[in-house]
Write the structure tokens for this entry.
Amino acid sequence: MTLDREQVLRSAAALLTRRSTATMDEVARAAGIGRATLHRHFAGRDALVRALEDLGIQEFEAALDTAALDEGTAEEGLRRLVAAVEPSAGLLSFLVTENQLFEGDQVNEGWDRLDARVSAFFRRGQERGEFRIDLTPAWLTEALYGLIGTGAWAVQVGRVAGQDFQYMIVELLLGGARRSVEK
Amino acid sequence: MTLDREQVLRSAAALLTRRSTATMDEVARAAGIGRATLHRHFAGRDALVRALEDLGIQEFEAALDTAALDEGTAEEGLRRLVAAVEPSAGLLSFLVTENQLFEGDQVNEGWDRLDARVSAFFRRGQERGEFRIDLTPAWLTEALYGLIGTGAWAVQVGRVAGQDFQYMIVELLLGGARRSVEK
DNA sequence: AGCGAATGAGACGATTGCGTATCACCTGAG
DNA sequence: CTCAGGTGATACGCAATCGTCTCATTCGCT
């Protein structure tokens, strides 16, 4: 009965997303294993969160690769990115709100890499005339993260249908709520 | 030296926004009072969080009143709302992420009231032809909350200038990132 | 100045969760 | 079948934090 490390991380992410103060015991139970086994694979709570962080970074990076942001229009790239990141949305929203990760001096450099890639994408979109230039790439990047997290939350509590996740995020981020004169 | 209850709540909100696991002692120190005094005014951690919740709801409700959402265009109303809510943005972002508040059966009915008012505002905007109808009022409401929280965070960590807070949020929420043909 | 209320500092027990160790059980490979 | 490794259950000590209490001090009001 080899332990499925990734599945443990997934269930931990799902639980911690809902209640970030969950006990190690609860995390173990949620994964269907004993607390002792959980401790054998993750030295402690910190190590568990770090492993989740690594997983989240890795998945987001993979989503960026999958999205091939530079192919076609920026809009198409963004749609592909949101689609690719949807399975990881819950995990990412947990990590973003786990600001404990960002107060130590040992910040995972992966976030900087991701920020740089996303920010550069928005900047290129601006240079190509597809995106407004009065909204900074840094803000668009943060807003994308925020909307992904909000979307994951809204779906989880049932305020938005799961199948609308991508559409709601991309349409709001790209077009906004205002009704255009022509569309 | 009568205790300034509201100031205590403000500093608590500021601290807890940055680190939601802060100790009661840290909360007290941040407010410049002793832990004993903090306990005299708030029976415990729960009571403190509940007081913060009440304060946040009250302030948001006041912001909704101030904004006079029904006067002028929906866009003007939204701008006034974001402006009015800016001072409370940190507190609100803390409360929104404190999902511990929403798992008990004793959910503060204030949130429903607020959701209803904001949601109704977006719905009226749709009916008047100002807002798109393919984005549900519930989603626009959640997105507004999310962007306010993201904006507060971005300003706090220095990724967005404080003076751009309102502009970034309203412009993104209304117009989106896409560059219009005419603008 | 005097007095009552409020505060700060510290101590205390209780609770909680963590990390480790132990032991019995199960499973799969040889 | 045998055995080594992994697992679950349980127990134990430890540290952190909470909530309460006490007591001396300070503040504000008269």
In short: Residues 1-2, 23-25, 35-36, 39, 43-45 of chain B lie near DNA strand D (CB under 10 Å from a C1'). Residues 2 and 37 of chain B are 11 Å apart (CA to CA). The two ends of chain B are 56 Å apart (CA to CA).
